[in-house]
Specification:
The chain has about 1000 residues and is mainly beta. The protein is built from ten helices and 49 strands. Helix 2 crosses helix 3 (about 215-230). The radius of gyration is 32 Å and the shape is globular. About 45% of the residues are buried.
Amino acid sequence: MKLRLSLITTAVLFFAGGQAVEAQRSKKDTIGEQKIDEVVIVAYGSQKKETLVGSNTEVKAKQFADRPISNIAQAIDGASAGVKVSTSTGQPGASPSIQIRGIGSYGISTAPLYVVDGVIFTGALSALNPNDIASFNILKDAASTSLYGSAAANGVVLITTKTGKKGADALSFSMSTGYVGRAIPEYSRVNAAQYYPLIWEAIRNGRLTSVPTSTVAAANAYATANLISGVLKTNIFNVADNQLVIDGILNPNAQLKYTDLDWQGPLFNTGFRQNYELNYSGGTNKTTYFSSVSYTNETGYLIKSDFERFTARLKVDSQVKNWLKIGTSISAVSSNGNNSVDGADNNSAYINPYAWTRSMGPIYSPYAHDPTTFATMYDAFGNIVYDAGNARGADAAAGRNIIQETLLNKDISKNYYIISRAYAEIKVDPYLTLSTNVGYDIRNNRRSRYINKVIGDAAPGGAAEKTTYTEQTITWNQLLNYKRKFGSHNFEFLLGHENYKYIYEYMYGYKQGQTVDNNDELINFVTPTSLTSQTDNYRKESVFSRLNYDYDSKYLLSGSIRWDASSRFSKDVRWSSFWSVGAGWRIKGEDFLKESNLISDLKLRGSYGEVGNDGTNSYYMYKNTFSLGYNNANEPGILFGFLADPTITWETNKQSDVGLDFGFFNNRINGSVEYYNRTTSDLIFPVPTPVSSGVPNNNISRNVGTMYNRGFEITIGGDVIKNENFTWSLNANASTLKNQITGLSNGITEIINGTKKISVGHSVYDYWLRQWYGVDPADGSPLFLVADAFANTTATDIRTVNGTKVTTNFNKAKYDYSGTAIPDLFGSFGTSFTYKNWSVSAMFTYQLGGKTYDSNYASLMSSYSQGGALSTDILNRWTTPGQITDTPALNSSTYTSSNAASSRWLVKSDFITFRQANLTYSFNPEMISRFGLSGLKLMVSGENLWSKTARKGLEPSQAFNGTTTNRYSPARIVTIGFNLSF
């Protein structure tokens, strides 16, 4: 009789939704066949990977552990096919926007649902320490997400935190530090010597247009006389104003009186990042524990923008009895920082430093100068004197100074979080487990702003505002799980109930009239302008069930259903059911493939189901609301605020998915191919109402639309070379997306919103713009395709060019669809090398197709700038009859047409970005053991290292809808660090 020894070692230990899950590695005869049952996190539990029928992408901690990221959402970029990421701003700690499998909605949230350790998480992701996270799973189809019901239409991200492991205690410390800089270069712009003749040319050409009887010589003289006194107001050269530009040529004797013309230098510099981590973990046969503390401090490349976070976390799991397991975890987080101006919400505001530094003409200095000596001026205390801009053109923000205002103003946030989880798991019998999970999160956010009294919006009195809001979420679920095996038949049945409660408390105060300096508390201000508060409540109750079945891990079936009630909707439509069914065939398990050395994994799977979206911007969608506080002295006032449709209910996603998972040569090559079709019905749209009806905003929100998202996803990876000393791996993913509105009702045929028009047969991101034709070679006029209503008129602003009817008047231009913001293909690819103790990895993200409406560039291409900056592309302007160019003549009389919103400003959205890279060196254990170390690793990491776009300065990934704003562009971060293990 042959003695056989079976050793069982724990390969993976997870905790999710109160369930401890072990993936076990079985070794037979110690040298024989090895079998690993890989386990992945799913909704309310875990499951063997080989029996999954849903679309579930797992990203483990080692894939982002050494990256200098402050927000775990940054690790999602490029991690999975079908996931599109709008890059976060450069504000330290900022989170990117994420869309999973297309555009889930038009009028309400398209963000995925986040679940932390089995409990819904609605706080800021910047509160989670990335180094406390063991893995995250991206759930993309209905089979994976339907157990989250009404919140799952946009996909789900399951975040699992680290837990202790049985065995010796482990202590580790890591530290990294590095620099923060600007990743996206600025648009190229003309300098001062180029600028004056260009503006002169616009004035001269405008004079010839507005006064047809004028001679060229007279128009030249007019432009010379009015260039400074009439338009630009400032002459920084040492020649007389009327001698600066003669006949279009800058005076060759002109020399700069001063050179401190840089607005960017004082605002943008090199930031600094530092991160420290300490964790201690271990456990016995009954109890495991994991604890950590961390400190992150990152200053942005814009002055007075930073993020500081301190986290402390403890997680304990204990097998109290052989039938009872309990556990708890608690995280305390304190974060604070200086907030930069949100450029997206303040696109053209005077306090927007990105708009100001981009668009300020190159002839204005931030500083005051002595009118005689031209020296920079200082006050009695030795402080530099800023120029308030009283001698600037109309496009150069007279009376303001962004550098001085940024230095004087304050915007500080202080946030405090408690994130807690607790569970109990009772083993009723070998097959039946009862568990209960409780999650309680509380977030207190305080924001203080001070607006200075010297210059800007609050001058001369000064102002202060305080905002505070507290959010509490309480989740409690009870789960009954039954697992049973009958021969080759495997069953798992889950029955659950869940309560969710969200409480939001808000208070805001604003006062003006500063009393003493250096005190921005409200008591130091005289006049209360605004004082308000509100409390919102949101509740959900749910019952859900899931049944999984497989036969010998070859034939797979899964079904789930959830009933949800949301307090956002009226009682009559509050409850709804969401469900899914899925099936799979693990072909590799069949006899004809079991012994195949070529095919190591092959599984065909498919699913269909319905999930919902109740992420509206109101907690009371079915109620008419009224706005208080519109008082007249002591007489109370109230305004009609929102007209509700009491029948409004969730948007519903009907999702189908077909996928093929494969592996070859013992999974040296592996991947998947998927096709999905996602139909959203009952889309919530703002239905227009007559102005005479008195409805606020002239619309009422109703369920009136239907649209689909569909596409293919391909993921592939493999080890090109793999031996004892050297491994080279490659991976890539690619996705397509087709979005289309298929139905509108309640009398709606179209909705025009900015650069887009919503109508049946088109995407929600299709551009609707005036049709730009080009530039007339005869006279440099801007040309548009003429609208049908004006095509047969004889107006002087309509002409025929190359046989095409066009107009020089943008008000008569034809509107039409002009492409889409949705790319043809997007995804990522990467590689990693391991040679002995060295390891290198890199990832690139890319996009092919689609268009961006580059309004930032448009603002630099004015045909008549009155103090604003100009792109170097303006040098290609029309100047001579017969010249072929795409840039109209500079002309102060026709510039409104040249500058008008049109298809002229669309540009290709293609890009490739060197998203991140890591270089590490791990010392041999025998080399460092004499120092009491079990591990020592050195590392260099980088984020947003390089990108290539269709135009310098363009940032095509900043918004899903393809628009641009003057925002805080992403940061490049490079750090060095080490990790010690004891």
